[in-house]
Amino acid sequence: MKIGIDDTDSPDGMCTTYLGALLCESLEDEGFKITEKILARLNPNAPFKTRGNAAVCIVAEEKSGEDMKNAFNIACSLVERFSEFDCEKTNPGVVVCSLTSDEDLNNSVPDELFRFYKKALCDFCTIKEAEELLEKYGFLYKGWKNKRGLIGALAAVSAEFDDFTYEILAYRNQFSKGIRTVKKDTIFLAEEKTYPHTWDSVDFENNVVVCVPHTPDPVLFGIRGETPDWVRKARSYIISEEPEREIVYKTNQGTDAHLIDSDISDILDGRSYKLKGFVSNMPVTGEGGHVSFKLTENSGGRSDGDESGKSVRCMAYEPTKGFRDIVRALRPGDSVMVCGSYKNESINLEKIYVESLSDDIIKKPPVCPECKKRMTSAGKDKGYKCRVCNKKSDIPEIIIAGRKIAPGWYEVPPVARRHLSMPLVRKAVHDVCKIQDSKIKSGNM
Ligand code: ATP
Fold it and tell me: What pLDDT sits at residue 27?
């Protein structure tokens, strides 16, 4: 059976993953065997999220007819005891059902429910949609206040990951709100010893610890990686205040599961996309250090970009730090694929694939053929003029500059990474596995 929970925290405290850890312990105390602990990240643009839009699903063995009801009661009493009910935005939900992810058991997730999970991950769901499905499938469920947490709780029990990673989370007491004591150098050591099998615990380039939050919640630190063994190994290097408890979740973090392949003309606000196109203007650094450029659907065969296709603004915000230099190095006509969420009329860049580079053309006033001095501009759209002999010319000197970037993938640093975004270190391994898989399927290996 699966027990889904969501929406128990507020900006002032708690965390649904912590409640998931408490739930596992309570279920085990009652004799339940836990088989999986799942942390499902949902649409990062969902308007009512507190922090990272996480929902939790605990999978336990069901032995008797009473087990579901007992597990439901345990989950509900924990939610009632620990949720931050005073916060208007905290609207918990609990769902219990007898689904498994095992197709042989004939009760794996029905398509309709899997589609609900995908919608919660990539799009937006309503409370009514969740309630209708819960009624239709006869699941045990309870929603508190406006019951919005039922969306995440149902999505969590309906989730099936075709790609997944793991995170070990260490917690402090639920009521601790102050500074966390975690030895910074031991986190750097943990990453050194286990990278690339774990990632994003630290940001070497910016010399920042990423895996210790600063928010007033029970998470002490969290380490992300490829397997439970790797995250446990990394964790073994970390010296900190004594954690209250720890848990390892299987998760869709770091998988790019939120990205939809799309054309620029089809994008909708609040969804996240992979979009192909051409850079169609020189990148601009705006107020606050944010860097933007325009991505256009087709180049019309021109190497200097094209204004005729559908376009969208792409943004590398200031927190993406050195990634902005990559974006600044793009030039009109570069063929790229961008990944990121579409919000407020721009794509918030998570990573970018530079497929091919155009020539970086610099136009300079020509040298005067008579007196060999460099001409100067004669005014806007008026060509060039020699200040010595007054000779005029309309033709600039064209210099093809060397490019500062090469084709390939570029990403924001760990400090700016979104939970669902796949780090390139993982992507490299992942792409090789996908190629091998397809070769095995087509009998070429
Ligand atoms: P927590 O750690 O408690 O999970 P959070 O940052 O994950 O915090 P929540 O407090 O769970 O955020 O709030 C997110 C709310 O939005 C939940 O009620 C959840 O059911 C709902 N929700 C999640 N994804 C979607 C979606 N795609 N469409 C509509 N509602 C959603």
Answer: 97
**CATH, range 165-251:** 3.90.600.20
Architecture of domain 259-357+403-419: Beta Barrel (2.40)
> CA-CA distance, 236 to 239, in Å (whole number)?
8
Which residue's CA lies nearest to atom 28 of ligand 1?
Answer: 124
Task: Please state the atom number of ligand 1 nearest to the C-alpha of residue 126.
Answer: 29
Please state the atom number of ligand 1 nearest to the C-alpha of residue 7.
Answer: 11
Q: Closest ligand 1 atom, CA of 42?
A: 24
Containing 76, the helix (H) or strand (E) segment is: helix 67-82
Low-confidence ranges of the chain (pLDDT < 50): 301-306, 445
CATH 3.30.70.2200 describes domain 2-158: yes
pLDDT at 444: 54
Do residues 32 and 93 lie in contact, with contact meaning Cβ atoms separated by under 8 Å?
no
Check residue 309 and give its pLDDT.
65
Nearest to residue 154, comparing CAs of 170, 169, 139?
139
The β-bridge relationship of strands 272-279 and 202-203 is: unpaired
334 token code pair:
């570069």
Ligand 1: centre distance to CA 83 (Å): 14
Ligand 1 site residues (CB inside 6 A) read 6-9, 15-16, 42-43, 46, 48-55, 91, 120, 124-125, 148-149, 151-152
Cα of 46 from ligand 1 centre, angstroms: 7
